[in-house]
Fold each of these.
Amino acid sequence: MTFSYFPGCTLKTKAKELDRYARISAEALGFTLEEIPDWQCCGGVYPMAKNEIASKLSSVRALASAKQKGQALVTLCSACHNVIKQVNNDMKTDSNIVLKANNYLKLDEPYQGETEVLHYLEVLRDKIGFDNLKAAVKNPFTGKKIAAYYGCLLLRPGKVMQMDNPENPKILEDFIRAIGAEPVLYSQRNECCGGYMTLEDKPTAQNRSKAVMDNAEEYGAEMVITACPLCMYNLTKNSGSNIPVVYFTEILAQALGLE
Amino acid sequence: MADLKEQVLTTSGVNPLKCMRCGKCSGTCPSYDSMEYHPHQFVYMVEKGDIETLMKSESIYKCLSCFACIERCPRGVEPAKIVEAVRLAVIRQQGQNHLKPQQIPAMLDEELPQQAIVSAFRKYSK
């Protein structure tokens, strides 16, 4: 199985490990991530305005590139996933955006939302299967209490993202079970970490990330996992908590005996 | 100003008349405490055409784009899109960028991910 792959800006810089562990785990599980050529940064947040076109084009280019190869497009960073999946929805449903994006891009064939966008976790769940992942685990995290942190971008808006129930998700908890650990349920798992507000309003980012980490700790978490480099930053740097926060791909690779 | 209201409605694609004033958007907003005007106020102030007051408020820079209000609104109003449209009405004007590249070096630290800077520029500048 080969997928087109959009790594995104931070996975080439501050979050290289998120990317590297994903690629080696993919190979061990029997699928390949083929980085799309000349991809451009997604912009980090989805441009919500109906009349924003230019800021959606990098996503459309990536989507069209995957379509050309006849592959699904896999993302890993929660932000890239959110932006690209929401832009893809626009390219299926908003005729004005479809018209203007295609007029500008002049692709060989107009792009109209044909590409399937999958987060790496959805590949594990829907293409590999958590049962098969469980069978491939060499070093299970037996007895380890791990809290899944979804944040906002993986799940919302639920109607567009369609990854899981946006208010009561289980994909990450099922992943945690598959690698032999025990998921910790806590109420802040799908609330915002403070995001980019860390740049100009530190107290907001500190309050948010502290609320998340304190809540995870209260419910007995020994570790928190995330798919997002900005969540990782806020939860480690702005929360004041000492509980380790790791990328889900890192513990995946460890469970598969790759590290 | 009627044309300003029209601009915000067109940009956001939101119909504020769908709002039933339950306040759930503001109740779930992670930036509530740092906002002068809260998401439900954005909705009814835009409905009334009171756009300029919102344009002058720092509240337009406090939305985290976490989509909590959009997800949890029982009427599908999508308040975050209204906040975004009011902010765009400001930063699309010449010289009105809220974040400038020369401010960035002072904000950097060793671990700050590129994603934070990219996202902030998309929200705050044109």
Amino acid sequence: MGAQLRVYRRRIKSVQSTKKITKAMELIASSRFVKAQQRVEASLPYTQELLRAISAAVSHGNSKGALVSEVENRKRAAVILITSDRGLAGAYSSAVIKEGEGLNALLSEEGVTPEHYLVGRKSVGYYKFRERKIANSWTGFTDQPTYEDAKRIASAVFEAFNTPTAEGGVDEIHLVYTHFVNMAVQQVRVRRILPVEILEVSKAEASEKLDTKVFPLYDFEPSPEAVLEALLPRYVENMIYTALLLAAASEHAARRRAMKSASDNAEELIRTLARQANQARQAEITQEISEIVGGADALASA
Amino acid sequence: MAELNVSVVAVDRSVWVGPAKSIVAKTPEGEIGILPGHEPVLSLLVNGVVRIEPTEGAKVAIAVHGGFVAMDSDNVRILAETAELSSDIDIERAQKALDKARVAGEDSPEALAAVHRAETRLKAAAAVTATGMHS
């Protein structure tokens, strides 16, 4: 076997084993994706009811409180980035980081210092490499987030929000995550969690299912303010939880797609290499034949 | 007869949905009983047991943590951070969790919360066995 042919065969083998790996990852991502999507769906009823209850409490209570109204002089804002722990998911994490950079620039322009709250090893690595100050970070659960994880994140940012600005607290909380639209489309979205954009939220997210126009005259216990006050932390937790779930579904979808195109590319490469290997083999055989014929010719004429 | 449409929803799933005759839950102001025709109410719930008497079948007890109830025109929605049907609660495991939580100390709020959770779970389980709902 000629040297060239051997090189081709070796490359084919290596591409084949790569393809096996990417194919396996594709299958794993698909099955995880289905689970992630089910979790998104299972969390919907709670989100809807919570939004409805909050809208009701806000529309009945006259005082809106610090959680709902904007601050005049914004100094600092918390920016939560939700990225993945692992790579091999195409542009999934880098898209979020890029959007985060845009938000950081926008906030800085307005004279607001962004404080970075990072979820997922990818964003942590990015910020560490650039030696930026990280306010807080969480890793290790991005592919299967639980409500507990969301609660941990929520309590950290909520605490920063409740700290006076002079003592290092933040005036706003922004969230950057990947919204899952469908299998083919995932969009990076930026949302402000606090101060609450109640109207926007109830219109955009809830108008189909809920009838937001008129609420019955609820009897609030203990009082509308107390109910609202108790519900808003829930709202923050729920926002983050929903974002984590959507991001997890997006991550699996992105990984599936990335791995699918990797497998397809490997397949394509194998086909090209096989063709080249066959050509090399054929060239070798032709050469051998012509050598034999040439040799026999030389003997006969001698 | 009018009946209540009840749904009990936890953050990650729907726990119990169905028609019911009455509901008893615990709010910061005391116990609240809800029958069909009750005025609209939106109330916080303290961690405790919610008892539901369905239109058909045995009574249901649910251990609820960090929840609230919203009721209007005979639709009752109970939302909670965690909600567990008493029939899903493993008494032995809950007891063990309670013991463990007690040992973990009562200094930190988390440990206390764990004790509370375990106690509520046991209460919910007991509520069912006491009234002979498991037949």
Amino acid sequence: MRGRPLLVTNYADDQAMLKSTTQTVMAGLFLLFLVCIPLFAPGAIGGGESRIPGPTFLAGADWLKLLSELGIFAMAALGLNILSGLAGQVSLGHAFFMGLGAYTAAVLGSGPGALWGVGLPIWVWLPMAGLIPAAVGIVISPTAVRVRGLYLAIVTLGLVFIGEYVWRNLDFITGGSQSGRNFPALQVRLWREEEALLDLEASGTWLGFLNLSGEGKFYLFILALTVLFVIVAKNIQRSRVGRAFQAIRDRDVAAEIMGVDEFRYKTLAFAISSFYAGVAGALLAVEVGRTIPEQWDLLLSVEIIAIVLIGGAGSISGVLMGSAFVVLLPRLVQDFGNLLQQSAASGGVLATIFDPILSTGPGDFGVVNLSPGVAPGLGILQLNTLIYGLLIIAFLIFEPLGLYGVWVRIRNYWKGWPFTY
Amino acid sequence: MSRLLTRSTENRRAERDYENLLVVDDVRLAFGGVTAIDGVSFHVDDGELYAIIGPNGAGKTSIFNCLNQVYHPDEGDIRWKGKTVLGLKPNQTAELGMARTFQNIALFPHMNVVENILTGRHIRMDQTWWQGALWLGKGRRDEFENREVVEDIIDFLEIERWRKQPVGMLPYGIQKRVELGRALAMDPDLLLLDEPVAGMNLEETEDMARFILDIRDELGIAIILVEHDMGLVMDIADRVMVVDFGRKISEGVPEVVQNDPEVIKAYLGET
């Protein structure tokens, strides 16, 4: 905060993850805020109405679900960031590895029933949901490390289509396109006993005084796992292996002459990225509850790539910002649409301001349609897709470093303030 | 001071159990119908500053690429400390103890100076990828130990003030110096320098010449130097080889080579 933040006197400080006191304090406070979100709900602490003051709506079931989804997408994107952002290998195949992780979890974690399931506890199925895709990634990588750039993108694209075909036909595992399948619940057991030690999907009381909803517990679990994955990703980035990845990305011939085994490190990047994807895929399936094979399609891959691009490839804070952006944007646009709709119905100020672009009935030509089926124009959902696409294009053209680049610019501006440099 | 920067030619020679550090024996390399190297032989000893000169396209950089096994010679043999390097991968030649800088700077542009030189430490670091990912105990200690070596190199090359800058933004002469530092960080026995002073002004050239001499004299590292700056080569090289059209046309101490009629013919044309 004060003093000389750039002055370091030992290597530990110099290579630290959070380099200054300000950074450490801010990160700590933000993490504390994230941990407290489920406690914003009335009656979260003890009995009665006592709670931690904060935006109550965040503690609602739908927002907690959304925030959990944010964490899950962040994990998947962190994996892709290691492969594409650090090691420079473009991959469209992330959805395949997510699907593989999900079905590994389903087979190992679900109890025996109509579909194949072994019924093992979470400490088996969750790590395996990462390890199996990592192993498959290693098996596949010899074909992938031979090609680069656009060709690699096409090879990995093929993976998604093969995956979708396989999932659709392995209906004793996936349930097929018609019905899909259920995924194991997030419950901690020692082995296969009836009563779960810890049920992360049912509401209950923790430590005797914290009343948490099932969504709240799920959210806290995802938060803890996301923090862990972020730390590991950051460590990978700042250690020997991360520098080897970046060396291959920047100059592959020079990297080899420095002693970096290109084949080995590309394979490793594939494996680590597939591990992240697999765990994220399993958790996504658990969160959604019931999914069909078509869930793991190209669109999911594109969504993860969008997160990395919008956030800023190669930067972990960028990936986190990108995930928040991509996951929360549809919700914000939708909420804004609802607000407009209410405002239009009651003749509010918002509707007056946005009147030129709103279309409320036949004969009213605006871009945004608030009465579907009656008036011309785009619905809220279509608007959402449109904004999404436009933003990706805008970021690629105006800020290739993504949200991270925007953040660095803002930070540098305030660092130098009131001077311009 | 790190162990890396306290060695000398004398104790390197005392340790050795081979005759010549590097022997290149009648190497030939052709791309389709174009012969790049046509039967070149030479040898380099510990602590020697050996220069290779010749007109553009003579095959100098191709020789380097053969040593590193980026190219695989069609015929002939390359022996490192008595053992052949043929069939190795480029990263394995690095582990043997060959380091290299490039004619067109090949730094990693998105990393800063420290990270670039640390990447040079890759083969000398003693951590697995998961130890690095955990950043506890061994992985962490290894990072800091190697960081110390990097600081010694930064000190040696006098690039302290650029330490934390992304290399893409540095002046050309400094980038060349960082690249030399990255090669030094590999703790090599032989340094391959591909035109280290190309495009530099007189002052930068003199600085670089001083560093090259220091590397040989203080660290005892053998150097093969490919360079067009005749003044530099004749001043600092122990022995010089002249190649033209992939063939060796002369070899010897600078004074002898300078007066060789074959060399004069290659550079100035027929008289």
